[in-house]
Amino acid sequence: MNTMEQYSKTGLAFLAGAVAGIITGILLAPDKGSETRRKISGKATAFGDLVKGKANDGFQFANNFKERMAKEYVD
Length: 75
Prior knowledge:
By secondary structure, the chain is an all-alpha fold. The protein has helices at about 5-30, 35-75. It contains two helices and no strands.
């Protein structure tokens, strides 16, 4: 397994643990049902935005890497 795969798996495990912790904390909080649903919705939206941002960063990194390799080895 290469280093990039290790970082990806570690990052994914960290995100999964963080999400599980947040959801558990919200579900165990003594709030009304509507307030709990609002909190879960807000956290899910924030998490979705985070994932989209990280995926975009990854795509940009890969594209930049591809361009650098093309310039270095094709020219």
